[in-house]
Design goal:
It is built from 13 helices and 13 strands. The chain is α/β, with parallel strands linked by helices and 359 residues long. The strands form 4 sheets. Strands 3-2-1-4-5-6-11 form a 7-stranded parallel beta sheet, with helices on both faces. It has a two-stranded parallel sheet with strand order 7-10. A two-stranded parallel sheet has the order 8-13. The chain starts with a helix and ends with a helix.
Length: 359
C-alpha cells in the first residue's frame, strides 16, 4: 500500500533536510513538497539553472535557508553540512543536459562526478546520523536499445558525457559504500535512478516539453528530433514522492541501506514522443511541430526501467497515468502563460490533487 502524505509528514515535520541542486526543476519541487510536509529545508546550489525558474518564482512563498555554494568547492560545501547538521540529504546537484555535456564536458564531469565524490568525502568523516539519497539517472545504464527493461543489476555505462559522468558517479557511490560506509552505521545511503521527468516549471534547454512550451507560448512551431523515441514519461511529483518514500523506509529498515532503486512507469506501456505532442495539443490547441532530423549527436531511441524492486520493497508505483502526466504538465504551463496564475498556487494545488489520489 502506498505510503500517505500523513505518514511522510510525521517523519519529516520539523526535520532538517538539505537539498543540493534545489534551484533546479526537480530540486525546487522536492523543496516545495518537503515544506508542504513541514520540513526545515536547507538549499545548496550555485545558480539558477534557467530563466524563468520554478524556484525563483516560488521562493518568496516558501521559507527555506539558501546557500549559494558550488558542490565542487569541497571546503565550502563541508562547512555548510557541518554547520547545519541535516537529518536528511538529497543530492540532486548536477549538469543534467545531454547537449550541454557535449559542448562543456569538463563542467559536466566535474559537477556530476566531482561533486558527488565531494559529498562522499564529507560524509566519510561525518559524525552525525543522516539519511542520504543520491539521485543519479536512468541513463546510468549502458543502453543497448533493447525492449527488455534495465534493472538495478544491469550493466552501467554511457556514450555521451552526461550519461557516462552519471554512471561514473553511481559507481563512485558504490565504491565508497564498500570501502567506507559498510561499518559506518550512522550514515544510511541509497541510490535513486529515474529519468525523463516532466512537469510544470521546467524551462531547461533541449528538452521536449520545455522546448514545446517555449515555442508555443510565442505561437511558434517546435522542431522534433526523434518523434518515435520512447521514454519513461513520469511526473515530477511522482518521482519526488518516490525519493521521499525511499528515504522514509531507509530510515526505519536497515536492510535497504546501500541499495539502488529504479523509479519509472510501467515499461509495458511505452509512449512515443509524437504521442506526447498529440496529447499536449488537446490541452494547448495552438500547438504545432515539425520533424527535424538530428545529424550531429547520438540519442537513445529506446530506454525502459524495471521498477519492480521499488514496487516490492517500498510499495511505490507511479500514481499518475500517462494521460494525467501530460495533462498536469500542459495545464500548468497554460495557466502560467495564459491565465497568469501564481506559480506557487499552481504547484501546491497539483500537490494537493496528487495527495488526494493517495488516499
Amino acid at each position: 500500500m502506498a505510503i500517505s502524505f500523513k505518514k511522510l509528514s510525521k517523519k519529516f515535520s520539523g526535520k532538517k533536510v538539505l537539498v543540493t541542486g534545489h534551484t533546479g526543476f526537480k530540486g525546487s519541487w522536492l523543496v516545495l513538497i518537503l515544506k508542504f510536509l513541514g520540513a526545515k529545508v536547507i538549499g545548496v546550489s550555485d545558480k539558477l539553472v534557467s530563466s524563468p525558474s520554478h524556484f525563483q518564482l516560488i521562493k518568496n512563498r516558501i521559507n527555506i535557508k539558501n546557500y549559494f555554494c558550488d558542490v565542487r568547492n569541497i571546503e565550502k560545501f563541508k562547512k555548510v553540512i557541518n554547520k547545519e547538521k541535516p537529518d536528511y540529504i538529497y543530492h540532486l546537484a548536477a549538469q543534467s543536459l545531454v547537449k550541454k555535456s557535449y559542448s562543456n564536458p569538463l563542467e559536466t564531469w566535474s559537477t556530476n562526478l566531482g561533486g558527488t565524490i565531494n559529498l562522499l568525502e564529507i560524509l566519510r568523516t561525518y559524525k552525525t546520523s543522516c539519511v542520504v539519497i543520491f539521485i543519479t539517472s536512468d541513463k546510468v545504464y549502458k543502453n543497448i536499445e533493447t525492449k527488455k527493461p534495465y534493472n538495478e543489476n544491469s550493466v552501467l555505462g554511457g556514450y555521451d558525457p552526461y550519461s557516462c559522468s552519471k554512471s561514473s558517479a553511481d559507481l563512485a557511490i558504490q565504491s565508497y559504500i564498500q570501502s567506507y560506509f559498510i561499518k559506518k552505521k550512522k550514515i544510511k545511503i541509497a541510490i535513486a535512478r529515474a529519468g525523463n521527468v516532466v512537469g510544470g516549471g521546467d524551462w531547461s534547454s533541449d528538452r521536449l516539453i520545455p522546448d514545446c512550451i517555449k515555442s508555443w507560448s510565442k505561437s511558434k512551431n517546435v522542431d522534433i528530433r526523434q518523434p518515435n523515441s520512447t521514454r519513461p514519461w513520469q511526473h515530477v511529483i511522482d518521482i519526488v514522492y518516490g525519493y521521499l518514500t525511499l528515504s522514509y523506509f531507509l530510515s526505519i529498515n536497515k536492510k535497504l541501506n546501500h541499495e539502488a532503486f529504479n523509479f519509472g512507469p510501467d515499461h509495458k506501456k511505452n509512449h512515443k514522443v509524437k504521442e506526447v505532442i498529440a496529447l499536449m495539443k488537446k490541452n494547448w490547441k495552438k500547438a504545432n511541430w515539425k520533424y527535424k532530423k538530428n545529424k550531429t549527436q547520438k540519442e537513445s531511441v529506446l530506454l525502459n526501467l524495471d521498477s519492480r524492486k521499488a514496487i516490492l520493497k517500498l510499495s511505490w508505483k507511479p500514481i499518475l497515468k500517462f494521460k494525467d502526466v501530460i495533462e498536469y504538465t500542459t495545464v500548468w504551463y497554460k495557466n502560467y502563460y495564459e491565465k497568469k496564475i501564481d506559480t506557487y498556487d499552481l504547484s501546491v494545488n497539483q500537490i494537493k490533487k496528487f495527495e488526494n489520489l493517495l488516499n
